[in-house]
Amino acid sequence: MLTAIIDWSLRNRLLVLFAFALVAAGGYAAVGALPIDAFPDTTPVQLQINTAAPALSSEAVERQITIPVEQALGGLPHVSEVRSISRAGLSQVVVTFEDGTDLYFARQQVAERLAALEWEPGVPRPRLGPVTTGLGEVLHYAVVGEGKSPRELREIQDWVIKPALRTVPGVAEVNSWGGLDKQFQVKVDPDRLAHYGLTMTAVLDALKAGNKNAGGGVVRRAGEAVVVQGVNQPAGPEAVARVVVGARAGTPVYLSQVADVVEGSDIRRGAVTADGAGECVLGL
Fold first, then answer.
1. Residue 192 belongs to what H/E stretch?
2. Tell me: the pLDDT tens digits for 171-208?
3. If DSSP codes are grouped into helix, strand and coil, which group holds residue 194?
């Protein structure tokens, strides 16, 4: 048998070479399209539902967020497991679907249930996690800069590097750690507030109303149209301090008269250092 195959191959050299070239080309094409991963993703089809509520304790997070979310997800098709964790200021519900379930079908079903939830005022709504798993981390990097403060480094990460990386095909999300989140903080003085007969509710309402733009239509004159727009988005503490919070004897009361407006940062829960060179910002 083997001798016959060898004899036939020697008599049909061109056909054998052609078949070899065809098989080699097919193998080359298959290798180019073969998915290669050093750590194959073995996680099941699962979704994370995260809710950040810094003002709530663990018990309040469980009662007001986690339990309603779990109840809303009851009866979803192809669900194999629902588990959750509630911590101070954070709720996370993980929904695992049966193998073979289309990921985007699962996200659509969960999103519809979350949208139908009746939520308490003031409690942040839950959000679906990115289309990735725990094995989807691609790169960790540190943002450093000589003479740059932690706040400046965080601004560079959030407003320069992060938007650029999110345009890269295949990147689902970019996370940031460390640094300082810039805030405009209003430190209300209760004595000054009582002196003008105002309340904290009036201050909050004035801040909300004084932080948005408004359209005023179009003014037509001499064949030209001019767009009228009220721009009222403060760009700094000085602009926030000029917000009108009330009136007294026909005279407007500005926010600066009842509070101190300063540039600050969010409450820190940790820091990032690298190479023993001090604090930096970490990106994932």
1. helix 190-195
2. 888 999 888 888 888 999 999 988 888 889 888 888 88
3. helix
